[in-house]
Write a structure and sequence with these properties.
This protein is α/β, with parallel strands linked by helices and 419 residues long. It contains 14 helices and 17 strands. The protein has helices at residues 6-13, 41-51, 62-81, 95-109, 124-137, 155-159, 184-194, 215-218, 243-246, 268-288, 294-318, 356-365, 380-383, 402-413; strands spanning 21-22, 26-27, 29-30, 88-92, 115-119, 140-144, 166-172, 199-203, 222-225, 237-241, 319-320, 323-324, 332-334, 346-351, 368-369, 371-374, 390-395. This is Nitrogen fixation protein NifS.
């Protein structure tokens, strides 16, 4: 366990860059993890090393072969990390770009007059792509409404709108607005029960940093992550596709291998940093368990992260020491309710009588980094039905501490009318 183990928390924090200090701001507490997690120090070092290599991966020279081996190793590491025995991994411009690409390909390969199904909780990365390419491909788009009170969409919600002619489906694994995690395996099973050949594509961008990825159990055709939200760096995304999806008609060079999805020269450094991330989960799993198998250690790390982040969110909601929690502050409303077991390291709130931007700035002036979500093209699908123009997103990760949350609670407490 991470909770109650200060030596391990110190060891974890020591592996990340800028844990307590921002090079632009100075000393600060980082509660903006959903916008982009802290970066492993090894990722910084690896990025610098490979940025200086001029050789193209795969060329017949020592550097070309060496960098290709780095890419191959990263893909093998991803297969262990995300637990898949089939399919392929490849990098793209970003998680959003890859989701558009996968959804576009699936829609254009679907039979005319078929349907695309998705949910109202989804990030626009999938919703925008599905709506756009459904229209272009002549497909009907089916919108599954999420529950405003819980911030969730369930397998039963999908089942209620499923028909055998659904050819493409999208699923959000976790919401960057409510912080709630969906049961991907159950939703996938519900979709396949009615339309067994449906192409199912999952946005795993928000979920991935919290561990517990298991592609083999999801029975889907595409899964996308953004490594900058999983302790790596900006500038690329990673997609996994099933063998079935890999073989359908897709953008590719003339006469290229039929299952090739990668374009142009690969960035060996981005792949190498993926291996750094997987090594970190492996290390953490060894610290919290006695497992000797690599996959088992990664699973143990995921469970420990989930448990500790649940402790952190509960501390924020219920309070610590003599500080009241967010639920006890009459001027604070918690989105999706204070008692929600689907929460993954994130609490979004509104403060009565104050614009969220102003609250975020007040906190920022005290060195507490949070973020405003507005009812715009990113978050309006969640906030508008709640009658909210904005909210404050407070997102934790397993390198955060109870002491940092105490600082946060103290700062929010004094924003109330009684203080």
């Amino acid at each position: 366990m991470i909770h109650g183990n200060p030596a391990l928390i110190d060891a974890i924090r020591n592996r990340f860059a800028h844990v307590e200090n921002c090079p632009f701001q100075g000393k600060r507490i980082f509660f903006e993890n959903a916008g982009g997690a802290l970066t492993l120090k090894t990722v910084v070092e690896t990025s610098a090393f490979y940025a200086a290599i001029p050789d193209n991966p795969g060329r017949i020279n020592p550097a070309g072969q060496g960098t290709q081996n780095v890419i191959d190793k990263a893909k093998a590491d991803l297969a262990v990390f995300m637990n898949t025995s089939t399919g392929q991994f490849f990098a793209g411009e970003s998680g959003t770009e890859l989701l558009f690409r996968l959804i576009r390909t699936a829609c254009l390969a679907a039979p005319k007059g078929a349907k695309v199904i998705g949910s109202s909780i989804e990030h626009p990365a999938t919703r925008s792509a599905a709506r756009r390419w459904a229209e272009i491909a002549g497909l009907d788009y089916v919108n599954v409404l999420h529950d405003n009170a819980t911030g969730l969409v369930t397998a039963e919600d999908y089942t209620a709108q499923m028909t055998p002619d659904v050819a493409v489906a999208t699923i959000l694994h976790a919401s960057p607005v409510t912080g709630m995690g969906m049961d991907v395996a159950a939703i996938s099973k519900a979709i396949r029960a009615v339309a067994p050949d449906c192409m199912i594509i999952v946005d795993g961008i928000q979920h991935a940093a919290h561990g517990q990825l298991d592609l083999d159990s999801y029975k889907v055709d595409g899964y996308v992550i953004s490594p900058y939200k999983v302790f790596s760096r900006h500038g690329y995304g990673i997609a996994w596709i099933s063998d079935r999806m890999g073989s359908i008609p897709h953008d590719m060079l003339i006469d290229a291998p039929a299952t090739a999805w990668e374009f142009g020269t690969r960035d060996a450094g981005s792949y190498a940093t993926v291996s750094d991330v997987v090594s970190y989960f492996d290390w953490l799993g060894g610290e919290v368990s006695g497992e000797t198998d690599r996959r088992k250690r990664i699973e143990a790390a995921g469970h420990a992260i989930r448990d500790y982040e649940t402790h952190l969110t509960n501390t924020a909601i219920n309070g610590t020491g003599n500080l009241p929690g967010l639920r006890e502050m009459k001027h604070v409303t918690i989105l999706a309710g204070p008692d929600n077991p689907a929460r993954e390291g994130l609490v979004s709130i509104v403060v009565e009588g104050k614009a969220s931007e102003d609250v975020v700035e007040i906190l920022n002036q005290q060195g507490i980094r949070t973020h405003t979500r507005k009812a715009d093209h990113y978050s309006g699908n969640v906030l508008t039905p709640l009658g909210l123009s904005d909210c404050i997103r407070i997102s934790f990760c397993h390198y955060n501490t109870e002491q940092e949350i105490a600082r946060l609670l103290g700062a929010i407490k004094v924003l109330g009318p009684d203080d």
